[in-house]
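Long-time lurker, first post. I've been practising inverse folding by hand and with some scripts of my own, and I keep getting stuck on stretches where the structure tokens seem ambiguous. Below is the full token string for one chain I'm working on. Before anyone asks, I'm not after the true native sequence, just a reasonable design that respects the backbone. If someone could post their per-position residues I'd love to compare against what I wrote down in my notebook.
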């Protein structure tokens, strides 16, 4: 027998999307049916059909830094850079640091070493915009000690950065967010949009 709800309103803190932690998330949906045994035994709503709703998200600079310091996230950026340069395994990234600059601008700094050489500081600056409901870093420039890096390498880092903060990819298609408003408030990103979900878990599990 299926359970039924006329809708769900949830106010969550530290909601986890893969390795990315959202500081706060407010969610409201329409009516849906769910498996009551899944809710009792595994603390999750497993829906028979996808349901749509509204979502508000707050994502802090601190949690962005935590996410990009994750070895798994750094490894993806390293692989992309090595593939572009044809030097598989030679580029190593360390000490990433992200800063929200206001007016939806973001700066990312990191140390880059090539072939075991002394690490060189690199900065990437761009604008946070929305494209087709996704957060995108655009108009990106990368410099090292004041010298601009090649455009093709910059584009690779920007692409991988955008993939890393793709909420649809992080939600593994069970929690698809389409963002329609993005605003930087102090050291926090405020996002609002629509959500389409087939599964929602509680108790620190991944959505």
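-- Answer (accepted) --
I ran through it position by position. Result:
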């Amino acid at each position: 027998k299926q359970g039924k709800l006329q809708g769900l309103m949830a106010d969550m803190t530290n909601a986890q999307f893969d390795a990315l932690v959202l500081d706060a998330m407010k969610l409201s949906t329409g009516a849906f049916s769910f498996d009551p045994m899944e809710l009792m035994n595994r603390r999750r709503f497993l829906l028979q059909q996808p349901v749509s709703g509204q979502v508000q998200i707050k994502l802090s600079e601190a949690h962005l830094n935590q996410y990009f310091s994750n070895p798994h996230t750094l490894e993806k950026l390293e692989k992309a850079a090595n593939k572009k340069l044809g030097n598989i395994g030679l580029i190593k990234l360390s000490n990433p640091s992200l800063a929200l600059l206001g007016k939806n601008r973001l700066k990312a700094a990191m140390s880059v070493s090539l072939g075991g050489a002394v690490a060189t500081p690199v900065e990437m600056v761009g604008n946070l915009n929305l494209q087709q409901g996704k957060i995108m870093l655009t108009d990106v420039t990368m410099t090292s000690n004041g010298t601009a890096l090649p455009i093709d390498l910059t584009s690779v880092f920007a692409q991988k950065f955008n993939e890393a903060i793709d909420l649809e990819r992080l939600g593994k298609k069970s929690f698809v967010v389409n963002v329609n408003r993005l605003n930087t408030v102090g050291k926090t990103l405020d996002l609002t949009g629509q959500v389409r979900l087939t599964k929602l878990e509680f108790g620190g599990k991944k959505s």
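A couple of notes from the structure itself: The mean pLDDT is 88. The longest strand covers residues 44-60. Happy to go over any region you disagree with.
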